[in-house]
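Worked example 3. Consider a protein that binds aspartic acid.
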Amino acid sequence: MRRVVVAVLAVVAFTGVAFAQNYPSHPITIIVPFSAGGPSDAMARILAERMKTSLGETILIENVTGAGGSIGVGRAVRSAPDGYTVSFGHLGTHVANGAIYKLGYDLVGDLEPVALLPSNPMIIVSKNAVPAKSLKELLEWLKSRPTPPTAGTAGAGSGSHIAGLYFEKVAGIQLQYVPYRGTAPALNDLVAGQIDIIVDQTSNSISQVRAGNIRAYAVTDDKRVASAPDVPSVDEAGLPGFHMTLWSGLWVPKGTPKEIVAKLNAAAVEALSDPAVIKQLENLGLQMPPKDQLSPEALGAWQKAEIAKWWPVIKAADVKVD
Ligand code: ASP
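Given these inputs, the predicted complex is written out as structure tokens:
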């Protein structure tokens, strides 16, 4: 009996190894939990394009949107742990949402980290009809409104929402949030003048700022973004210390073979080391992750540290989810 069990285990182990060796043998899907054309979607598409050269297989992007990205992450968590479904996410989806939603899955226990991806500084932008020309004037305008001005977000717990909550706190203002399925549709409404402001990811707003279709006041960093040199940092513009960059990452469902995680990680690291990819990402205002932080273990440790830092802050803000 014991011999049979050993033999069965050996076959299972061998099949697993063979499966990992042949990986990938058909297209991989990256689930982006926000709308097409937004900042997460743009980063995922740039990386997927290069990762498919390393992996030798097509990589499809599927936008599964809603509830601050928690629906898309849930879809990835429930898929087979075979490396063919990858979860793209960020500080919002893979940290903040655990403090906001009853997720039905565990962000650390049910996912395997793959690789840390670039960070996006936030940029404070308004519709052109707002009369302010500087961050100080914007703050005066926001405070003078009879009812809280409207701020577009990608849903409760998204990057734009966390940044909005942080902005309210440091600036002593009150905002009324308008949730979308991503900041791509929120930005369309800002350009059309339907909402007042977004504390947006720089990569999302930058082309509309350059085109003069919306107004930018400051980037939430201690230095200017090379791709938007005219926009001051918050330190220069009058809100020193209001620093926030939204890091992103890749995960796979728990139980995915280590060899497959390693193959996906290697493809992501190759993409992040390719000068053409770096140029594309930096042109959007994105900051590359430190080279010594690109292992799956580093992302796992970073995610846990961010949970310890942000959950108490978010729970104290008592975010309501409809
Ligand atoms: N990353 C989201 C998107 O791609 C935006 C956000 O988190 O605010 O739309």
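Take a moment to read the result before moving on. The chain is about 45% helix and 20% strand. The radius of gyration is 21 Å.
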